[in-house]
Each structure stands twice: as C-alpha cells, then as structure tokens.
Specification:
Length: 226
C-alpha cells in the first residue's frame, strides 16, 4: 500500500506517520509539507511544497497512491471565519481535488473533530465550517472518510504546536490509562488514529464518519503487519 500524508509535522500527523511506517503492508509513505519532518526511513519520501492552494505543479508526483491521510489543520481560536475557512476548507479541497484527479480510486481520510456539525445549524463557527467541508468531501468520493476524534493523546515524544495544548498534554498524558478505561469513546491516541486510517484504507471501516469510539474499535481490529 502506498500512502500520502499531509500534516506529518503536526501532533496528529506525527502519530499517523509513525503508524504508516510501522505497518508491514505499507511500501511507501509520501509526506507533502512546507517543512521537513526531519525523519529518515526506507519507506519515507518527502515533497516540500510552498503553495497549499495549488498542488497542480506536483500532480505528476502524486499518482499511483492508494490513500491520503489528511492531518493538516489549525485551531479556530482567535481566527476570523474567513481566515479559518481559507486554511481548513480551501487547502483541504485543493489537495483532495488534485489527488482524486490523479488517483480516482484513492481513499481520502480527513481528520475533522468531535462536535463537527454538517447541518449548518450550529452557532460554533469551526463546527459549521468543518461540517460544510465534510459534506463536500463525502460528495466528492465514495472512498472519503471523516475522522472525528475528541481528545487525542500525542505519540510519545511528539509535540503540539499550540502552547495551551502543550500544557494540557503534560497534565493529561500520565492519566491516559485511566481515561481510556473510563471514557474509551472519547479518548484516543495519534498512533491509534493512524492505525484506524490504515484499516479504513483496507476497506474495513464500518462507517464513512467515524467518532472516537469507532476509531478505537477499527484500530483494534487492525490486520497484523507482515
């Protein structure tokens, strides 16, 4: 299986990338980003690309892939709707359109978030914008899947880019085993998220929109790596 990962330098993407590199069925992982991951691995290849609103200049390098794991995103805290929409919607759709044109059978996994609302009725700007994006992606391809994790614990050694998240993870990380037992449908890890995406690419996802509980269950059914 050949996988493309966006957002591999972020907290979520670091775990997803690690899951891909560990999986014996994955033969190549292509990371597309503005900056390098700083990692080396026999399976890993990276493309540095500056303009995330236009991927057509590198489209010929994006063919022959089985799945895309799109982990790129920002917090809406302090952002206007226009600015948040430009990053969340415009960038994601630019990537999805280019990739699906190059790989019509591609599985496209998008990391959304718990509370996303596709009805347009919510007052929360971020939930409405992500809901609109989810609806568009689901219409673009029957192999598009939305992942709505609630709380994600980063990969050991992974780092969040938002200062408030860094503090939160320092407090919560030691409590993860307890939280997992008490609230398994609300807590997951970035590595488990990656494992669930790999199972989805194999055609083993029960739904096209997966909440935290679904993510944990799909990852738990993971095909043993060879």
């Amino acid at each position: 299986m050949r996988i493309i990962v966006f957002g591999a330098t972020g907290m979520v993407g670091q775990g997803v990338l690690e899951a891909c590199l560990r999986d014996g069925a994955v033969t190549e992982v292509l990371v597309v980003g503005r900056s390098s991951t700083g990692r080396t691995h026999p399976k890993l290849r990276e493309i540095r690309h500056a303009d995330f609103t236009d991927f057509t200049p590198i489209q010929d390098q994006l063919t022959g892939y089985d799945a895309c794991f799109f982990c790129l995103g920002v917090s809406a805290l302090g952002m206007s709707e226009a600015a948040y929409r430009a990053i969340t919607v415009d960038v994601t759709l630019a990537a999805a359109r280019t990739l699906l044109a190059a790989n019509p059978e591609l599985t496209f996994c998008y990391v959304s978030g718990a509370g996303t609302d596709g009805t347009g009725k919510t007052r929360m700007m971020w939930a409405r914008v992500k809901g609109e994006l989810e609806n568009t992606l689901l219409q673009m391809s029957p192999r598009a899947h939305m992942f709505r994790p609630a709380f994600i614990l980063p990969l050991p050694g992974g780092k969040a880019k938002t200062k408030s998240y860094v503090l939160l993870y320092r407090i919560v990380t030691p409590l993860y085993p307890v939280l997992r037992r008490l609230a398994p449908r609300f807590v997951t890890t970035s590595l488990i998220l990656g494992e669930a995406m790999l199972e989805t690419a194999r055609g083993n996802a029960p739904h096209r929109v997966l909440e935290t509980g679904d993510i944990n269950e799909v990852a738990a059914s993971q095909t043993p790596a060879s």
